[in-house]
Design goal:
CATH architecture of the largest domain: Alpha-Beta Barrel
Bound molecules: zinc ion
Shape: globular
Distance between the termini: 63 Å
CATH class of the largest domain: Alpha Beta
Strand content: 5-15%
CATH superfamily of the largest domain: Glycoside hydrolase/deacetylase
Length: 261
């Protein structure tokens, strides 16, 4: 009799543990992801969008020592869309807009040292053309390291707000279509892989632009709205934090932790 009771109790405890575990797995709290947006790096800070290379190194060291894990934009987007169920705790994404040369000269050595994935949003008109921009060869070299991935920032980085005011609605729509599809096609041809993601130039977007981006074949698009990305966010307007030169490491940490807007 005593043994029977004991077994019953043990059985119940085991069932309870099993259910509780299942409960924990089933309702794992949704993770919110800080997606960071950089532009340029350098030994000297000339403007708000240039991050001192030593400061960037300090930020990467901060992420590492605070147990943050830099994940690829691809995995973040799959998680936000519910295509993968989980990502590491303290996930963070690093992106860089515009294809500035300092990505190759200053940023890449640190990216290799920390072995982290980085997405570059490129507008093809500048590449192998503008003095400040990287060449196609440099972009291919960066992708060959496997740490970098090239995605789209439209063809020549237009200000869609200005263009909308200037052009007839028909011409405007045509321009947007060419900017979105043209960049995708050129980047795919040069990089030899599908281009799926878009960063809105100047962070400008609206419903009409989002629809055209879907039509052009983009899977997700990013803004510079300052908050963590959540599964409830519109997939064609995911938020990112622009990182600027005046941030001290304390501010950087607060942004990543979601303590400030
Ligand atoms: Zn840009």
């Amino acid at each position: 009799m005593f043994l029977q009771v004991m077994w019953k109790i043990i059985f119940r405890v085991l069932v309870a543990i099993f259910l509780f575990e299942g409960f924990l797995w089933g309702v794992e709290a949704e993770k919110e992801i800080p997606i960071l947006c950089y532009h340029r790096f350098g030994a000297k800070v000339n403007d708000s969008m240039t991050i001192k290379t030593s400061v960037f190194a300090e930020q990467l060291a901060w992420l590492k020592s605070n147990n943050y894990k830099v994940i690829s934009l691809e995995n973040a987007i799959k998680y936000l869309k519910g295509e993968i169920k989980t990502i590491p705790d303290r996930s963070v994404v690093i992106t860089v807009d515009d294809g500035h040369r300092s990505v190759y000269s200053d940023m890449a050595p640190l990216v290799k040292k920390y072995a982290i994935p980085v997405t570059l949003f490129i507008y093809p008109s500048a590449i192998s053309n503008a003095a400040y921009a990287m060449t196609w060869k440099q972009l291919q070299e960066l992708e060959a390291t496997t740490f970098f991935r090239i995605e789209s920032h439209t063809y020549w980085h237009p200000n869609f707000k200005h263009e909308k005011k200037k052009l007839s609605s028909e011409k405007y729509k045509k321009l947007v279509g060419l900017q979105l599809a043209g960049a995708k096609q050129k980047l795919e041809e040069k990089m030899g892989h599908k281009v799926k993601y878009l960063a809105w130039p100047f962070g400008i977007y609206d419903k009409e632009l989002e629809e055209q981006a879907v039509q052009a074949g983009y899977v997700a698009a990013l803004t510079i709205d300052r908050r963590h990305a959540r599964q409830s966010d519109p997939i064609m307007a995911l938020p990112r934090y622009m990182i600027v030169s005046r941030y001290r490491i304390f501010t950087f940490g607060s942004i990543v932790k979601g303590e400030m807007e």
